[in-house]
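haha ok so turns out i had the wrong file open the whole time. this is the CORRECT one, sorry everyone. sequence first:
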Amino acid sequence: MKLVNIHKHTLLLFLIIGVHTVKAQVWAMQQCIDTAQVHNKNLQMSRNNIAIGEQREKEAKANLIPKVTANADYKYFTNLPYQLMPLSTFNPTAPEGQFKEAQFGVPHNINANLQLSMPLYNPQVYGAIQTTKIASELTKLQYQKTEEQIYFEISNLYYNAQILHHQLAFIDSNLINAEKLLKNMQLLNEQLLAKGTDVSKVKLQVSQLTTQKETIKSKYEQVLNALKFAMGISIEQNLQIEPNIQYHNTNEYTPASTLDIRIIKTQNRLLSSELSTLNKSRFLPSLNLIGMYGTTGFGYDKQPNDFLKFYPIGFAGIQLSYPLFNGTVTQRKINQKRFEILNSEIQFELNTEQNNMQVENAKLQIMVTKKSVETTTEQIELAQTIYEQTLLQQKQGTANLTDVLLADNALREAQQTYINAVIEYLKADLELKKLTGNISTTK
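then structure:
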């Protein structure tokens, strides 16, 4: 791509400007965004969070599946447990109210069984299923929010890279003109038609432009490295941006619910679901199907009656549990959730008002930057004309070197102002898309 010398051509609203012929692949902004979709570490973690939310939802539903537990234990009693028996058991003539201690059982006790438990109705389980479902929706919205942030970050970095790329192109163009001017001044100086100080002034300008070029080149590489990091690719990978700035002079976007508002609404639903679960667990009973089947073994290891015998045991039934009083713990949790819901509603109102204010500010910023682009385009054309006329006057002897340098500086300032205005316009447009919930439509 050939360097466009803005001193020789009328600068249109947007130009395709390149520093040199690019051999590496040129990455468009959309390619950078698409690459970040796959390789960006924050997006990868967000996708993992979605998977975690799905597993939590399945975990909550799994509480409705019957649970089977295997239990086994062995006890050897060094001292058999005592029990008090009425004395009349051993002696029918014994008076009432007198007891005799007695040891029951055998030293060896073995128990092995399978226990079954299945909730028939449990308000906490059904509430948890609903809550995890909403939490999963919230995680997906947060992923979209991360996507939006990555899109916004890459777009801004790409715009910054473009502005630096154009600055390098302008500096190269100005440097070529300054070097030509230096040669002319050196030739005039040799012919005793120009002072040595005039040559030094031009040399200083060439030196300043060279230093400025190195500084901007370094900043350009830093921005490219930041862009690579946001994309999730290696810093060593060669990356060249598209220097052609895509300008769309349309800013009419249909207002839609932003992700921030949708996230707050979903958080409010989540809190309401948790509050509903607490209320249900406070007033509704839980009903479970229970069952157990196993064996109990008794053993005696003393002669002459040593033995080990096993006896079956099993039962099935229904267990009803109703909370009567738990020390007002549930009530305190309910009060907390009510305050959290109140804060969520206030946050929704705050974000809505803030978004409306930011939309109006973004529209004003677009109007200002759009006018600035038009004005600076005219300023560049005017500065170009003044510079060419001053060069001609300098050759005719009616303008001195200072006039040429001032005209050149005015042209460079106009170039810089123009680039800044273009990028600020694009950033304001991007901000408006985000605030109106239309940023995803650009993907």
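Residues 64 and 89 are 50 Å apart (CA to CA).
again sry for the mixup
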